[in-house]
Amino acid sequence: MSKDLNIDWSNLGFSYIKTDYRYISHWKDGKWDDGILTQDNMVTISEASTSLHYGQECFEGLKAYRRKDGKIQLFRPDQNANRMANTCKRILMPEVPVEKFIDACKQVVKANEAYVAPYGTGATLYLRPYVIGVGNNIGVKAAPEYIFSVFCVPVGPYFKGGMTPVNFVVSDYDRAAPNGTGNIKVGGNYAASLLPHEIAAKQNFADCIYLDPATHTKIDEVGSANFIGITKDNKVITPKSPSILPSITRRSLIHLAKEYLHLETEEREVFIDNLDEFKEAGACGTAAVISPIGGIQYKDKFHVFYSETQAGPIIKELYETLIGIQFGDIKAPEGWIYEI
Ligand SMILES: Cc1ncc(COP(=O)(O)O)c(C=O)c1O
């Protein structure tokens, strides 16, 4: 590391810090330009941009990890690229080609290498790619121009000193509609989640659980993470629903459960009034990997899974295996790791 940043790596949270460089590329007249790295963290756009008025924007989140040998690696950036392309298609934005997306991420990590925490601190470099509709437009229609950008922020380890289970409450609100935009990563889903989150937080819950918007009987999402449950006969279950964001962490954990832990896995409906079928549960996503779920409040009943103070053994093992791969300590499945 060439630069002394004076960052207390073990006490970093999840807050914005201006790093040195971000990547920015413009789409106009049917094509993306080559993109550049810039030190300017301000984005100046038309007051009539569709991203400001009609929510024509999307984002992604992934991390760069420092290995024991000092090298840096990205975890499955192609999966984020594919998900973002899928999101763009749904809201009529031009897709960012997978190679361009990965190249932009690599450029940003390289240019901000000093912000990738030393191995062993648990901290990582969080990358935030996004696409926004810009240009002059007032009617409800797709924008004439777009910006694709990637910036990065060093973030702390989610669990400092052991995994602590957290509790959730089932919300009466929906974050998305049955055939809406729940399965893509658009800002509108997150705007819709701010109030339910605040209500849950005021009641001392970590976040809220969203049920499927069509019947309100099945678990869809756990805040901004996917649900994962371990049945009494050690099956790893994840909910199947068209309004869930397809989590890359969840997909990875299912693979590891099968191939590394030799457990059975199943994607199927998870009924909120049948939580007794699970002995352990967790919320999975890029930020936490897996947060063990202590308990879930549903109407007037509080259901406790493994324990309110300790993570269960299978959730713990899944967590250790995935972070082992992400930090380069465990051999990854073919194609998961992109070295910088
Ligand atoms: C709504 C929602 N669900 C699930 C996830 C987890 O997805 P991933 O594992 O790809 O980070 C996220 C985070 O991106 C999210 O925002």
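^ pyridoxal-5'-phosphate complex. The domain at 166-326 is CATH 3.20.10.10 (D-amino Acid Aminotransferase; Chain A, domain 2). The longest helix spans residues 187-202.
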